[in-house]
Structures are given as C-alpha cells and as structure tokens.
Amino acid sequence: MSMIRLIGAPTDIGAGHRGASMGPEALRVAGIVEALRDRGMAVEDLGNLSGPMNPWKPPVNGYRHLPQVVEWNRAVYNAVREALGEARLPVLLGGDHCLGLGSIAAVADHCRLHGKKLLILWLDAHADFNTNQITPSGNVHGMPVACLCGIGPPELTQIGDHCPAIQPEQIRQIGIRSVDAGEKRLVHEMKLDIYDMRYIDEIGIKRAMEEALSDLDDNTHLHVSFDVDFLDPEIAPGVGTTVPGGPNYREAQLVMEMIADTNRMASLDIVELNPAYDDHNRTARLAVDLVESLFGKSTLMRL
Predict the structure, then answer these.
(1) Which of the residues 96, 109, 183, 227 is marked catalytic?
(2) Annotated catalytic residue: which of 196, 257, 269, 272?
(3) Does the active-site annotation cover 272?
(4) Could you read off the pLDDT of 163-186 as tens digits, one per residue?
(5) Segments making up each domain of the chain, as ranges
(6) Which of 277, 258, 31, 65 is nearest to 155 (CA)?
(7) Any idea which architecture 3-294 has in CATH?
C-alpha cells in the first residue's frame, strides 16, 4: 500500500481572485485526512509549504507575479520530487492551478529517471494553454499546460530537469468548456487531446474516459490534476472562475471511479478550491468525496 503524502501550497499567486490560498485548510477541515484513512490508506500530512505573499500587482510583460510564481513552483517541484523519491504518493493541496507546473514537472522528471510512461489527466473547465502574448489577464494559472509543453518564459519552462517537461500527447484534458480565442488556435496547433463538454455530451462520459485512458499499461504513471472548477458550479460554487455546463455529481463520480479502476494513479493535484466563494465548505466536502472515489470508494455495491 502506498503512503499518501499531503503537500499544502497555500497561495493564489497565479489566480485572478483572492482565496485559493485558503484551499488546503478547507480540504483539511472537510476531513481529507480522515476520509483517506477511512479508506485504509496510510496518510502523512506534512503541513504547508511556504512562499512569497501575493503582491497583487498588474502584469509585467504579460505575466502577473512571475518571480513569486516561480518561487512557489520551485517549492512544489522539490516537495513532489522528494515525495516520489521516498515512494510516497504526493497529493498537492492547492492553491491555484499554476502550481500544476511544478507538480507535473517533478512527476515527469521522476518518470524519466525510472523509465516510466507518463499520462496526465487534466480535469478542468479551462485548457490553461495561454501565453503572455495571448492571455487576456496575465494570470499564470491560465498558462501551466503551455509552460509544461515548453511554451513560456525560461523561468517557468525550465522548472524541472528537462524542457519541455512533457509532450502534448502525454496529456488528456477532460471537461473543457472555456478556451480563449488565441488559446484555441494554439491548442489546435499543438494537437492537444481535449475532451470538451460538447464531445462528452455527444458520446457520454463513460466512453470519453475509456478513450482518454485507452493507452494505459503496467508501466504507466497516471497523474491526475483536478481543478475543482471542472465540476458544474451548481454543485461546486467554491471556485474563483466558475463556468456553467460542467460534469454533474454522477458524471464526476464516474470519472473518479474509472480512474480508480485503473489502479495506476500515482500522484494528484487538487487545486482552485476557493472557500471565499463557497457555501459552508460545501465544495471542499464534495472534493473530498470525489477524492475518496479516486482512491477506490465506489458508490455501487461492488465486491
């Protein structure tokens, strides 16, 4: 049994709204440690990483808070890399989704070192493939996938040992329904594998997930980057960037259960939970419920 290591990263440094910095504590208050232990998991919670305060400044050259974003991502990279090196399953408690850059760069370097295939499931309402040239806001939480694929400033594309950290074919994006115009052109050029909500509506969530997971094998490290705004805001209001039309509760549960069925998930991000927009920690409790399903809790009576 893997030991799960929780890594808190309490920052909204890459976001456009304050509040994601409170996400790690909201997940703890919602009982994430107890829920995973109730699933029979061994869990260690090392508390929170530290990093610079959010200066809340306007963009410079198309990036908001670039030095601080780099510092937070280096801290995440080091913590995730250390956890993997100690045979721990890292669960990053965000924080905003810019932190996926440091987390996935660490996972990618670990996989290269150990000769493992890497597959990333990016559960999100947004493609997060902006650059400083096309971003409408300069917020780096809209850029991590582009940076991981080598498109961005050296400070971000070279967080890990390799640039680019990943190839576009290593990532599957699920639930996408908000893509900026310039971003749309770029993801088509890069041939990013996107299962947007229209596609999911047309073929169903089960078939979409079967396609997304079709090339897993025994040598695959599966990383799940779970942005809480993946969920429909009707069930998950506690995010800074709500986009209507996302997966409902049962669809989200099926996504998580199908991932659990692969028995390949070896690292996880939970990001963009924003208690400032939530209702009595409702979204955090839902996130914990879904994370339990990622670790094997089934809503069906299965042996």
Answers:
(1) 227
(2) 272
(3) yes
(4) 999 999 999 999 999 999 899 999
(5) 3-294
(6) 65
(7) 3-Layer(aba) Sandwich (3.40)
